[in-house]
Write a structure and sequence with these properties.
two-stranded antiparallel ribbon; about 70 residues; 5 strands; mainly beta; single chain
C-alpha cells in the first residue's frame, strides 16, 4: 500500500497522524482498496526505491495508528 502523501520516513508518517491530519492510503493498480484492519505501507513512492515499510491500522477510510516495520 502507498499513502496519498509521499512520506520520506516513518517518523514523518507518524507525525502527520499525531498532528491529527487524516492519512489515507491506496493500493496501486487495478486492485480494490484496503479492508478495515492492518495494512502494510511501503515508502517512499515509485520511482524512488522503497526504503522501508510500516504496519498501520486502517479504519473508516484513514490510518488510525502506525506501528512496526523498518524505514531507513
Amino acid at each position: 500500500m502507498d499513502t496519498e502523501t509521499n512520506f520520506k520516513t516513518k517518523k514523518a508518517l507518524k507525525d502527520a497522524g499525531a498532528a491529527g491530519k487524516p492519512v489515507r492510503c491506496y493500493r496501486p493498480g487495478p486492485f480494490p482498496g484496503p479492508e478495515p484492519g492492518k495494512v502494510t505501507l511501503e515508502g517512499p513512492h515509485f520511482p524512488e526505491p522503497h526504503r522501508g515499510y510500516a504496519v498501520a491500522e486502517w479504519k473508516d477510510g484513514a490510518i488510525v495508528t502506525v506501528s512496526g516495520g523498518e524505514w531507513r
